Amino acid sequence: MILSPTLYDFWTEFVSVPGVKTGLIIVLLSAVEVSPVKINPWSWIGGIIGKLLGIKTLSDKVDALDEKVDINQATTIRIRILRFEDEVQNNIEHSKDSWDQVMDDINRYEEYTECHPKFKNNITEASINHLKKKYDELLEKRAWTITLVK
Fold first, then answer.
1. Which domain holds residue 40?
2. What's the domain count of the chain?
3. Contact 114, 63 (CB under 8 A)
């Protein structure tokens, strides 16, 4: 009498081949990762290894660096605005291009401070208001300083 192999016999023979178990684990983990369920075993395993080795993730480092760059840019813009306001207060005339640049700086600075309420902003408010008012006056009168090239 010949016995026909069962599914169990086929399975035990299949998994006894070297490397098949590892291959099945990789396929299963990959299938879970691309499935619509938000389970990501590779990221989880990578995170554990990173924590064990004391490695901060690259995205954390990039985010921290971006934040520092943004703060430095906002601070630089604030310095330019305040310096320009000092010059205006001391009756130093500026070209329309210089005024347009400072108005662009003001817009960028206000956008940044609106999105980052913890950033200290109280030192420029009066200066910005004065510059906007003065810009509107100059725009209305068309009273820009013209630099002549010799």
1. 7-53
2. 2
3. no
